Amino acid sequence: MNELPSDIIEFIESIKNEKNSESNLIEVLHMIQNKYGYLSEENLTKVSYLMNIPLAKITGVATFYHYFKLKPIGKYVINICMGTACHIKKSDILAEKLKEELGIDFGETTKDGLFTLMQSRCFGACALAPIIKIGKDVYSSVTVDQIPKILESYFLKEK
Fold it and tell me: pTM for the full model?
C-alpha cells in the first residue's frame, strides 16, 4: 500500500488528537482529491486507519457530496446543462450526440482518459441555451452539428 503524501499525513497527525477531529474529514478528502483528482478506495482506507474513522462512514461522506469523485476523471470534463431552458432548446439531443461521439454515458470517462461526460441542472445562463462547458470553456447556443468540431479542437490540443 502506497503512502499518502507527507503533507496530508502531517495534517492528519496534527488534528487527530483534537476534540472532534472527525470534523476535519471533508478537508482531508479535499486534500486527497486535489492531489489525485479522485478518491481511490485505497486512499479512503488509509484515511480510515490514520483518522480511526470507520471506512463505511468515510465512504458515506465521500458518496454523499456530489463534488467528490470515486473514479478517475478525464483531463476534460464535459458538463452539459439539462436545466429547463437548455432542455427546451434540445440539450437532450446534444447529450445523445456527445454520448455517441465519445462512446460513453453520463458519469463515464473515455478509455483514453481524455473526456468525462457529466450533466448539470443549470448554469444560470438560460439566455445562452443550450450550454456545454468543457473544463473552463463555455459553449453557448450549441447545435448538434457543432459537437464533432468542438470535440476535435480538444483532440488537436493533445497532438
Answer: 0.74
